[in-house]
Amino acid sequence: MVGPGRPLFVLFGSSIVQFSFKNGGWASILSDIYARKADIISRGYFGWNSRRAVQVLDQVFPKDANIHPSLVIVYFGGNDSAGPHPSGLGPHVPLPEYIENMRKIAIHLKTNSDKTRIIFLSCPPINEAKLNEYSSPHVSKLVRTNELCRIYSEACLDLCREMDVKVVDLWTAIQKREDWSNACFADGVHFSAEGSKIVVEEILKVLEEAEWEPSLHWKSMPIEFPEDSPYDLVASDGKRTINPSKYTVYGGIL
Q1: Is 87 a catalytic site residue?
Q2: Exactly one of 39, 187, 217, 245 is catalytic; which is it?
Q3: Residues 6+ apart with CB under 8 A from 106
Q4: Which of 14, 28, 122, 196 is catalytic?
Q5: Cα(178)–Cα(180) distance, integer angstroms
Q6: If you average pLDDT over residues 193-197, what whole number do you get?
Q7: What are 45-54's pLDDT values in tens digits?
Q8: pTM of the predicted structure, to 2 decimals
Q9: Would you call 215 a catalytic residue per the annotation?
Q10: Which is it for strands 233-234 and 166-168: parallel, antiparallel or unpaired?
Q11: What pLDDT digit, counting tens, does each position of 101-145 carry?
């Protein structure tokens, strides 16, 4: 650990999380917005489904940890929603099991610490045509359709309403953009920089509207070492310095 201690935001999920620091990804945007306020930590696992997530909950979020996250953002569902392979192998998880797995994740996080806040991300749509362009001769073809994504997204939303868990409806949010199918995805599944901006916007809406104490919205959190300093850049009038502690690259989407 390094000090001073900051709140920890943990992103837990599949490749949507693992790739979220790449190429203007949503984790990198959050890290910039929360610079000097919170540490964004990724626990993303390419190819994983909710079944594998449940198996490692005690390792990723141990109950006896000295420090618990202030916020956990959870995404599973895209791989679960892939159609079943005839062999029985592969990432598919039947819908009833997916719902129960996500319930187990929520219960584990809620019982770990009453100070940990939770946001689930529902399954976003995909660009089916673009996804088919990225097929590999080394991997059996997966059945990935928007209809399956919609079904798993709705199941996630229903569960969150039942359990009083905050949720981002990515299925709806992404499709609000007219050219979403081309603009929001790098390969048909994983977010482009434009898609990642939408993810961040929706997460920030939840954080702003949540009646959590303390608030985890970036504007409400204290800045680390915010004081003015004679060592900051000198203003054009040559008489004072400019405090840069509130600066963020992504001011345009806030």
Answers
A1: no
A2: 187
A3: 74, 118, 120, 159, 160, 163, 165
A4: 14
A5: 6
A6: 97
A7: 999 999 999 9
A8: 0.94
A9: no
A10: unpaired
A11: 999 999 999 999 999 999 999 999 999 998 888 777 788 888 899
